[in-house]
Specification:
The chain is of the alpha+beta class and 387 residues long. It is 29% helix and 33% strand. The longest helix has 15 residues.
């Protein structure tokens, strides 16, 4: 068996594998393989020239702890039905994580798990969460504000408007994709493949919000809501309530930091939902991020990683002037021990040191905990991309 990146001649076989488990409805399937799929970003496990398993990398840059960080999105992980249960998917993922570092020039990656347990065993951990809304449409009333004008999106001329609103909305968030023009076009084209549409909202003649949505079986799916402020967000809810009354259900995957649900009469239709998993693939991520000012010091880290043994290390992380660097191991006053899996949650700020320690996932004395708490505080993560 060998690991190789796909060639153009492999596309039909990869489509065949894709259709075993993933969405193959039209026009999405044709759109994906004509606009998104790239052979050079598809890692294959082959035996005697036949592809037995494959995965794909979608290249993204995210804003992580105030730094622009390469973060490939792993998608389309699949093993041929006839070969499952033999550990091929596990070996494919191991090689894929090494390729993240070698050929993707990245230290972290992200994915949306269909089977979380499979990825938990490989050192992935949830680092993003959402509130899932599924409400009768008339229960949106408490969220609805003042009606403002809206028009259908012209992606060719108005993607910079979307980008401006997006940046403002996520000004204090973490882990979000730095969307390029092509990212916006792909996002919108995927939505259109579901029969969806986009709206731009104007307040006093100026753009203040956007809405991506589609409708199926009398359910209104809010794919993404972007807004400058709470008033703009409330106006989007007012538009939905007043203009889509034929729909019975409102569905929305809201960012975990969004507090709209606190205005509802009851919370029965809103549920907490872990969404995306992350993985540290190279400990150099600790040198690529920025740290809070006035948090100088150093700590000895014992990192364990059974899935990627090369990440099992004993090292010293020194923090000065908001930057981190590795130094040769020497005795320090502070030390901590944890798995690389939990390190991902610290890096992304989904969990803090004290939380991990209380669960027995991090071993450290009180001073070490306090230092880790200071340099890696909790963050509010957002990502709406699915591939």
């Amino acid at each position: 068996m060998e690991f190789v990146f796909a060639q153009n001649s492999d596309t039909d076989r990869i489509k065949e594998l894709w259709q075993q488990d993933f969405e193959s409805y039209e026009p999405y399937f044709s759109w994906y393989f004509s606009k998104i799929y790239r052979p050079e970003r598809t890692l294959c496990l082959k035996q005697e020239g036949r592809i037995l398993a494959c995965l794909q990398f979608a290249p993204y840059t995210i804003r992580l702890r105030n730094c622009d960080i390469a973060c490939p999105y792993i998608v389309g992980v699949i093993t041929d039905e006839s070969c499952r249960g033999k550990g091929l998917g596990r070996e494919l993922m191991r090689e894929g994580l090494r390729q993240v570092v070698k050929n993707r020039n990245a230290s972290v990656c992200v994915l949306k798990p269909a089977v979380p347990l499979f990825y938990l065993k490989q050192g992935f951990r949830f680092s993003y969460a959402q509130f899932h809304y599924s409400l009768p449409m008339d229960e949106l009333a408490p969220l609805a504000g003042v009606n403002i004008s809206a028009h259908h999106l012209n992606i060719d001329t108005e993607w910079p408007v979307l980008a401006s609103i997006y940046r403002q909305m996520l000004n204090h968030s973490n882990g979000y994709v730095l969307r390029t023009e092509q990212n916006w076009r792909n996002f919108y084209q995927e939505l259109c493949g579901d029969g969806g549409n986009g709206l731009i909202f104007l307040r006093n003649g100026q753009p203040c919000a956007y809405l991506f949505y589609y409708i199926k079986n009398r359910t209104f799916f809010a794919r993404e809501i972007g807004f400058y402020d709470r008033a703009a967000r409330s106006s989007v809810f007012a538009h939905i309530k007043n203009n889509f009354s034929d729909c019975k259900i409102f569905s929305w995957e809201a960012p975990y930091g969004d507090n709209s649900h606190l205005l509802l009469a009851d919370f029965n239709g809103v549920h907490y939902k872990p969404s995306l998993m992350t993985r540290v693939c190279n400990l150099r991520i600790l040198e690529q991020m920025t740290y809070p000012q006035l948090s100088e010091g150093q700590i000895c880290l014992q990192i364990h990683d059974d899935f990627l043994p090369e990440l099992t290390q004993l090292c010293v992380l020194s923090i000065a002037n908001g930057k981190g660097r590795f130094e040769p191991f020497h005795t320090t006053a502070l030390s901590a021990e944890l798995n690389c899996a939990e390190l991902a949650q610290l890096v992304f700020g989904f969990s803090c040191a004290e939380q991990l320690a209380s669960q027995g996932l991090l071993k450290a004395d009180n001073r070490s905990l306090a230092f880790l708490q200071k340099i890696l505080p909790l963050q509010q993560n957002f990502m709406s991309e699915e591939a």
